[in-house]
Specification:
Elements lengths: L1 H4 L11 H17 L21 H16 L4 H11 L3 H14 L5 H5 L8 H13 L2 H56 L7 H15 L1 H18 L3 H11 L5 H22 L4 H11 L3 H15 L4 H4 L2 E3 L5 E3 L6 H13 L2 H59 L1
Antiparallel strand pairs: 1-2
Length: 408
């Protein structure tokens, strides 16, 4: 009766590690509590730990594990040491789960599949390959280098996006403060006199009145804007819309496009060098790139490759009747696809695209550095112009009052 309800071996011969791990968790719970697992009893195999695991903490975990295994320490001892050194409660719980499951024959990748919220498909796939090929230390060393480069690049990209927003927001807050608190007090005395108010000053006064009379509406509009973006990220159509817009914003769209291309190259290179099959590598890569437009195109490429089309042709290279090559792809650059085509002929796709990825990474870092250097004086001039305009609007009535005084 037991095997009729739960089967560890599927009809296709694959082992259900999820079901087996659930059985282990139930057994651990029974040992801790001294109670047998009941049918109607709600059980919990591990304590609830709030919080997440950052990319840097995942990299630190992979780095320590790779160092220990490369030094000749056996797998169980390595996880015992890592478990003692990990500070994050959630990650400590995951490491402990892996350590306990190793005693029951479950692999590292089998346990990590239960925590895909914290470990992306690239990490799980490479660890699974390393376990099957008995080359886990080497795979982890390569993965650690890739993760560190990815974290550094994402950090630069994130700062390039946030830095202008912070400066402009501070400038707007300062302008709103001057319009709502300083300008009305200074110009209040002029409204009670016969002194004509200059047009610029009157415009600023009207703007100040609009902000003070409609501040609730303005706050609701800002909150509603960010809330609508948050809602859109929860639906497929919203993700598609935001992905489409993010790739077409001037300057920043180029950064997002290059980020997705670099992540595609690095992931595909790592997977192919680890002897992962092309179809599986493309599917894993599609789950790694952040932009959903890129995800769709990679899935399309994977489906065409599965149908027998060469990878370079699926990525956009086509040969006409006169044997002239043409290229059409809205997401991947032409030089990358040509390097893929050469790699298909020589059997070195991973090595070829690695060179392209390194060039793109250096180019993107230079672009971000130049952008940050150019934004600073631009924002300083922008803020100076705003503040200067308000100061002029405040001073103009004083000049007008001086003229009236002279005429008397």
């Amino acid at each position: 009766m037991f095997f009729q309800k739960k089967r560890f071996i599927h009809t296709d011969g694959t082992f259900d590690s999820v079901l087996f791990q659930q059985l282990l968790n139930d057994a651990r719970h029974a040992v801790k509590t001294g109670k047998k697992p009941g049918h109607f009893e709600k059980k919990q195999s591990q304590p609830i730990v709030f919080g997440g695991v950052s990319d840097k903490e995942v990299w630190n975990f992979i780095n320590k594990l790779a160092s220990f295994l490369s030094s000749g320490i056996d797998l169980k001892s390595a996880f015992s040491i890592v478990h003692k050194q990990v500070k994050n409660p959630k990650l400590k719980l995951i490491v402990n789960d892996i350590r306990l499951n190793l005693d029951h024959g479950l692999s590292i990748s089998d346990t990590l599949k239960q925590y895909q919220k914290y470990f992306d498909p690239l990490i799980i796939s490479l660890i699974e390959v390393g376990e099957k090929t008995w080359a886990l230390p080497k795979v982890l060393m390569e993965l650690e280098v890739n993760l560190l480069e990815s974290i550094e690049l994402r950090s630069k990209i994130r700062w390039a996006m946030i830095y202008p927003i912070i400066l402009i927001s501070m400038a707007l807050i300062m302008v709103v403060f001057m319009l709502t608190f300083i300008l009305p007090k200074i110009t209040e005395s002029f409204t009670k006199t016969w002194v004509p108010i200059p047009g610029l000053t009157q415009f600023m006064i009207d703007m100040s009145k609009f902000i003070t009379n409609n501040y609730i509406f303005i706050i609701v509009a800002f909150v509603g804007f960010f809330w609508s973006i948050w809602i859109m990220k929860r639906f497929y159509w919203g993700k598609m819309t935001l992905s489409y817009i993010s790739l077409r914003i001037p300057i920043f769209g180029f950064i997002k496009r290059q980020e997705n291309v670099i992540q595609f190259i690095n992931a595909l290179k790592l997977l192919l060098d680890s002897w992962v099959l092309m179809l599986e590598a493309l599917e894993t890569t599609a789950n790694i790139v952040p932009n959903i437009q890129f995800k769709k195109d990679i899935i399309r490429i994977k489906n065409e490759v599965e149908a027998g089309i060469k990878l370079s042709n699926a990525m956009g290279i086509s040969i006409g009747n006169n044997k002239e090559t043409s290229f059409h792809n809205n997401f991947f650059p032409e030089d990358l696809v040509h390097m893929v085509s050469v790699g298909e002929e020589t059997g070195t796709i991973g090595k070829n695209i690695e060179k392209v990825g390194q060039n793109y990474t250096k180019e993107l870092k230079r672009f971000i550095a130049n952008l940050m250097a150019a934004l600073e004086p631009f924002i300083i001039v922008f803020v100076g112009a705003l503040v200067g305009t308000i100061i002029i609007a405040i001073m103009l009535p004083f000049f007008q009052l001086a003229k009236v005084a002279k005429s008397l």
